[in-house]
Specification:
Number of domains of chain C: 3
Order of helices and strands of chain B: HEHHEHEEHEEEHEEE
Oligomer: heterotrimer
Largest interface: A-C, 80 and 57 residues
Number of helices of chain C: 13
Chains: A alpha/beta (about 290), B alpha/beta (about 200), C alpha+beta (about 375)
Strand content of chain B: 15-25%
Strand content of chain C: 15-25%
Number of strands of chain C: 5
Distance between the termini of chain B: 41 Å
Largest sheet of chain C: 4 strands, antiparallel
Number of strands of chain B: 10
Structural class of chain C: alpha+beta
Helix content of chain B: 25-40%
Chain lengths: ~290, ~200, ~375
């Protein structure tokens, strides 16, 4: 018994449903459009939302980049790339500039994206108010009535109790001056990249069955008070030990032998690019 | 020339998505195999959109002088059901549509609810001319500064659209098509003003 | 020098998959798909039910590939289901048409048609049978022949024996209302997104697709006091149901033109639950409501638990977690729950870096304010 597989895994009916949901998401920036969310061969929670978006978008001539925690070689990124390649035959790249579709978990690349590109972000929990209100029925009402007092209160309480806002990644943003949105667990450092982006940003939550979007040239601001402004992760005085970059998100690593802390570009392909700008022929393997 | 339907609809979808993300950008669709293009008696771009977006799970309402024949064909090929305008997921306006019917549709089509704004109509509207020009100005998400266009539609069309969009996120989203196999989108977030 | 990334990821994954494949075959034993279908019926039925795909063959294949993991097998089958084009919707089935193999009621000692035990493990003593270690085909052949020859002779008949529903008895007495058939188009939860409050068709689908353990546990919690449903099993029936498809347009449907496409085995449970309601004068009246459970294959425990939860969710006004439809329905899906829990194994160091930064910052603020 031999099975004939569809291009990009899904049958046309499945793709159409995702595509219609995506178009509505783009028309209503920041609003979570519910969708059927079919099962795919990778686990729920492992990027099925992002994957469904990629599979509904991708065509023969696309070039795909997949990263997880900024790295192209992360096992999960490799696994997703393999699945898409096996079902489409498209070429993949590590070079951000060469990609037409970038699927990413928890980072937006350092290289600014262009209008020829679409970035697909994997989202575990699409509802920014979930910590405050566990019921989906209720959070839909809060969004409908633009009642975001709970989110503001949460920030306020953190400041009162602890002295600063302690959100880490996934700091909520306001999109097009209307919807409060979960940007996905990207570090605060990356929030600004969503504002007036040249590229279309799509976000997919497979398990929670939601698709949402930030169109290009759209206002995105992180939730903050005037007197307690939005703060990104602090890398003052630190640089990548490989390429010396200072204005990027850095991973903190520990030297096993000396016990010393050092820093390295999280965006591995960006780091490589910088390294290769200053060099010549011979190939050297680097643990990026 | 794209002969395989899977790749054809994928290409059309990418073009429409691009157009919806950048309202006012005029996007030329892939040239389809002539058999697809000639299926329906309408613009090639309109045909392409019907094949790409419609199926058994959605409903539509057709506004055209030849609506009975056309809708029978559309349902036969896409399996989408033809329903009254207030229920339709997609509203298709062909070149020969009566203005009064279009206005009525604009006034009564689905605009979603505050909780479920996505349950709103998507319009596919044939119009000529549809090109860069100096009649109307578009601003809003997806547009870097502004876009100037010439779109042949009565002022009442824009007026009623504006009324139905007055309570964001409620609204409707439009995909325009012209004779040159081009599309242009105006999601509900796009602000349309007359120039001069 | 040109810098290239150390490519560890791809090789690591390939090595891992090779090792997994090796583990499955290294003992040089092969289990046939047909053997699983024949001798592991419960596993097959559980996988079909949780995947909502009725195909004993595919379920058995999934079980073989998954090396017996329910989590993995259901995942495989659901993912496969995603790729199948959805051509038709079958006609509604009438459970009165069931060719019954087993049918019992806990509500009455005697029921029309009698209590038909069928093949059930309910009354077996759960003693490990060490004779099964050396089971022989020859010996089984003898047992099969013995069993067959002890059966009464077959009688050819065109009459199909049907068992009336126990609930009909209650209806005739006026103890259970007769409802107008609700022919609203059911929602298909695999094709549409669901919205809360949820339609009953969606609720029943999510319950029947639920992970057997999860549904059972929540039904149990309700019985133990974390719920206000006190059910008596009105009827459990198990047997075969024919499936028909009609391919004409809705306007022209003629039942005689339907196509029979096969039969499936179903377990069905109707639980009777006494419910108190008050009328306008504040008078309380007691009446019965029905909790409904149905599963592909033989899944009696799950179907009973499902019927309890169906009743719980019919009364969201009661303040117990088993009456909260989001709590119950969003946490019983095997693929979703196991997927999300296992996703915690994925690298989370960027978000962790962010948390580290936030904690350090907070500490810095506190230290600064303490020294001031």
């Amino acid at each position: 018994m031999k099975l004939i597989r569809h291009f990009a895994y899904f049958d046309e009916g499945a793709k159409k449903e995702i595509r219609r949901a995506t178009l509505k998401a783009v028309a209503i920036p920041g609003y979570q459009v519910p969708f059927a969310s079919r099962e795919v061969p990778i686990g729920r929670g492992w990027g099925t939302g992002g994957l469904q978006l990629t599979l509904s978008l991708i065509g023969k001539n696309d070039v795909l980049k997949v990263i997880d925690q900024g790295s192209d070689e992360s096992v999960n990124a490799v696994s997703i790339k393999k699945l898409v390649q096996e079902t489409t035959g498209v070429s993949c790249t590590d070079d951000t500039r060469k990609a037409s579709i970038i699927q990413s978990r928890h980072r937006i690349p350092e290289v600014p994206l262009t209008k020829e590109q679409i970035i697909v972000l994997q989202v575990p929990e699409p509802e920014p108010l979930r910590d405050i209100e566990k019921s989906e029925h209720q959070t839909k009402i809060l969004h409908a009535e633009e009642d975001y007092s709970g989110a503001w209160l949460q920030l306020f309480e953190q400041i009162m109790i602890i002295g600063s806002t302690t959100t880490h990644a996934n700091h909520p943003v306001v999109v097009n001056n209307r919807y409060v949105m979960a940007p996905s667990p990207i570090p605060r450092f990356d929030n600004e990249k969503m504002h007036q982006s040249e590229a279309l940003i799509l976000l997919g939550a497979g398990r929670e069955k939601k698709i949402y979007a930030v169109p290009p040239y759209t206002n995105v601001t992180s939730l903050a008070f005037d007197d307690y402004t939005f703060r990104v992760e602090n890398f003052d005085g630190k640089a990548c030990h490989l390429c010396n970059a200072t204005d990027v998100f850095l991973d903190e690593l520990v030297n096993e032998e000396t016990g010393e802390t050092y820093f390295q570009c999280n965006d591995s392909s960006y780091c490589l690019e910088r390294l290769n700008k200053k060099t010549s022929r011979e190939e050297v393997e680097v643990n990026v | 020339m794209v002969t395989d339907q899977v790749h054809y609809t994928q290409n059309v979808y990418r073009d429409v998505l691009n157009a919806m993300s950048r309202p006012g950008d005029i996007v030329c669709l892939v040239e389809a195999d002539s058999s697809f293009a000639k299926t329906f008696n309408c613009f090639r771009a309109t045909s392409s959109l019907l094949f790409t977006l419609l199926d058994h799970d959605v409903t539509y309402h057709l506004i055209s002088d030849d609506s009975v024949n056309m809708s029978t064909m559309i349902t036969a090929y896409t399996l989408a059901r033809h329903v009254p305008v207030e229920e339709a997921d997609f509203i298709i306006v062909l070149m020969d549509a009566q203005e009064s019917e279009v206005e009525h549709a604009l006034k009564t089509c689905k605009v979603g609810t505050l909780r479920d704004p996505h349950l709103s109509a998507t319009w596919i509207v044939e119009t000529e001319p549809l090109q860069l020009g100096k009649e109307i100005k578009l601003t809003g998400p997806g547009i870097e500064t502004e876009t100037l266009l010439q779109v042949q539609l009565a002022q009442t069309f824009w007026d009623i659209r504006k009324e139905r969009l007055s309570e964001f996120p409620l609204g409707l989203d439009i995909i325009f098509t012209n004779r040159r196999n081009e599309v242009l989108c105006m999601p509900r977030t796009t602000i349309v003003e007359k120039v001069g | 020098m040109a810098y290239v990334a150390v490519k560890g990821g791809t090789e690591a994954i390939e090595a891992s998959i090779n090792l997994l494949n090796y583990e499955r075959i290294k003992d040089k034993r092969i289990i046939e798909v047909e053997t699983i279908i024949s001798t592991m019926r419960s596993l097959v039925d559980q996988v079909m039910s949780e995947s909502s795909l009725y195909s004993p063959f595919l379920a058995a294949l999934a079980i073989k590939q998954a090396e017996g993991s329910m989590e993995e097998a259901v995942f495989l089958l659901r993912a496969h289901r995603s790729t199948l084009p959805r051509l038709y919707v079958s006609e509604s089935v009438d459970m009165n048409d069931m060719f019954v193999e087993r049918r019992i009621s806990a509500s009455f000692k005697d029921i029309p048609g009698g209590q038909l035990l069928g093949a059930t493990p309910d009354y077996k003593h759960r003693l490990l049978n060490f004779d099964l270690i050396d089971e022989s085909a020859f010996h089984n052949e003898k047992l099969i022949n013995q069993y067959k020859s002890a059966l009464p002779p077959y009688v050819n008949t065109t009459e199909v024996l049907r068992y009336p529903k126990v609930v009909e008895y209650l209806r005739k007495e006026g103890l259970f209302p007769t409802y107008e058939p609700n022919n609203e188009e059911p929602i298909d939860v695999t094709k549409e997104n669901i919205r809360f409050p949820i339609a009953r068709s969606a609720r029943l689908q999510m319950l029947t697709r639920g992970q057997t353990g999860a549904v059972t546990s929540l039904g149990y919690a309700s019985l133990r006091g974390y719920g206000a449903v006190h059910p008596t099993v009105g009827e459990v029936r198990f047997g075969s149901i024919p499936i028909h498809v009609n391919v004409q347009s809705e306007a022209e449907i003629d039942p005689d033109d339907s196509y029979y496409i096969g039969e499936i085995k179903l377990s069905e449970v109707e639980s009777f639950v006494p419910v108190t309601t008050s009328d306008e004068n504040g008078n309380d009246a007691l009446h019965f409501e029905i909790g409904y459970g149905v599963c592909f294959g033989r899944n009696e425990t799950k179907a009973i638990a499902m019927s309890i939860l169906d009743q719980c969710l019919e009364h969201p006004e009661i303040d117990f977690p088993t009456h909260d439809e989001e709590f119950v329905l969003l946490h019983i899906d095997s693929v979703e729950s196991t997927g999300f829990i296992s996703h915690l194994k994925l690298p989370h160091y960027v978000t962790f870096q962010s948390k580290l930064d936030a904690v350090r910052n907070t500490k810095k603020e506190r230290d600064t304010s303490e020294t001031n």
